[in-house]
Amino acid sequence: MTRSGADLALLLLGGFRALADAAGAELEARGFPDVRPVHDFAMRAIAAGAGNTSELGRRLAVSKQAAAKTVAVLEERGYVARETDPGDARAKRLQVTPLGFEVLRQGEAIFDQLRGQWEQQIGPEQLAVLERQLQVLVGDSPIRLDTPGWMAREIG
Amino acid sequence: MTRSGADLALLLLGGFRALADAAGAELEARGFPDVRPVHDFAMRAIAAGAGNTSELGRRLAVSKQAAAKTVAVLEERGYVARETDPGDARAKRLQVTPLGFEVLRQGEAIFDQLRGQWEQQIGPEQLAVLERQLQVLVGDSPIRLDTPGWMAREIG
DNA sequence: TGGACAAGGACAACTAAGTTGTCTAAGTTA
DNA sequence: TAACTTAGACAACTTAGTTGTCCTTGTCCA
């Protein structure tokens, strides 16, 4: 069967959404409603060393204002703490709270479990091949997988 | 190599974005700036028989208000025409203009061309397998590929 | 045939996640 | 010390959605 390029794009997006929707629902069921992929990215970046909001914006390839809004949400929900930086009176230091780390841990577990279901459906070797091929195709494009700036924008 | 489930989700989204970004850029280069996937979906639905805004909303799995906004944009840009329905004084009949059809045609051609590039990179059989596997995985999920309501929402 | 309900569409206010632009305060450097 | 640069706050705007309210028109049925 010869498919169109548009179909291919839809399959990819559909695959992502199938995983993301299921993960979001499960995370909600586990007591973490309203956790979005963006929050996961942000917490991961902070845990990996983004010490303040401006730095977080740079790592996520997003304006510092956008980063500040995300941090505000995360702080409000108790996933990230902000304290004044002792070494720089301008800055507020960012830290992922234990609750934040718990979300990260559970999110990972959920995604791994979903991947396990896919493995059962098409087989481990097949899934590995699919991942390898996607890696080639995406790696050959300008898309960087570790920044979420391109996520929300331009999707619709 | 054992990958995480989160990596898999990112690869899928990244693959989609690689295609969508390239297609958007090419469409812009061909003289159609600001055409979004949502517009493509909407025009296709209208061409396929969504005769008014409320019906369009239902087909796209989106509120009629959201559909009305999309139609307003498409009308402003000359891709869709609205005329009063002779048989129902409440309704405005929707039609894709020749310019709208031109966008659809070129969009298809661009996506097919991009798919061709991927075929060259991993081989036609491999790409067909990838598509078949994705079809299985997505077909097994609640995701419907012909409605864009889930596109913009919940991505970030 | 009239009265109740359904449907199309307009208008307004809101959300989420981004954007630019402007501003202050605090470090850094020549 | 004066001139940048940086961190962050605040405001206004964008896009694609959401609810809710309202008016008008069409349909159905007792």
Helix-strand layout with pairing:
Two copies of one chain form a homodimer.
Chain A: H1 5-29, H2 37-47, H3 53-60, H4 64-76, E1 80-84, E2 92-96, H5 98-122, H6 124-139, H7 149-152
Antiparallel strand pairs in A: 1-2
The first copy, chain A, binds a DNA duplex (30 and 30 nucleotides) through α3, α4 and α7.
Keywords:
homodimer, 156 residues, mainly alpha, Arc Repressor Mutant, subunit A, two-stranded antiparallel sheet, 7 helices, 2 strands, DNA-binding
The proportion of residues in beta strands of chain A is: 5-15%
Class by alpha and beta content of chain A = mainly alpha
What is the CATH superfamily of the domain at 23-114 in chain A?
Winged helix-like DNA-binding domain superfamily/Winged helix DNA-binding domain
This entry's quaternary arrangement is homodimer
Give the tally of β-strands of chain A: 2
Number of helices of chain A: 7
The mean pLDDT of chain A is 89
Overall description:
Two copies of one chain form a homodimer. The first copy, chain A, is mainly alpha-helical and 156 residues long. The first copy, chain A, has a domain at 23-114: Arc Repressor Mutant, subunit A (Orthogonal Bundle). The first copy, chain A, has seven helices and two strands; from the N terminus they run H-H-H-H-E-E-H-H-H. Chain A has helices at residues 5-29, 37-47, 53-60, 64-76, 98-122, 124-139, 149-152, and strands at residues 80-84, 92-96. Chain A has a two-stranded antiparallel ribbon with strand order 1-2. In chain A, a hairpin with a 7-residue loop joins strand 1 and strand 2. In chain A, helix 2 (37-47) packs across helix 4 (64-76), helix 3 packs across helix 4 (64-76) and helix 5 packs across helix 6 (124-139). The radius of gyration of chain A is 18 Å and the shape is globular. The relative contact order of chain A is 0.12. Chains A and B meet through helix 1, helix 2, helix 5, helix 6 and helix 7 of A and helix 1, helix 2, helix 5, helix 6 and helix 7 of B. The structure holds a DNA duplex (30 and 30 nucleotides).
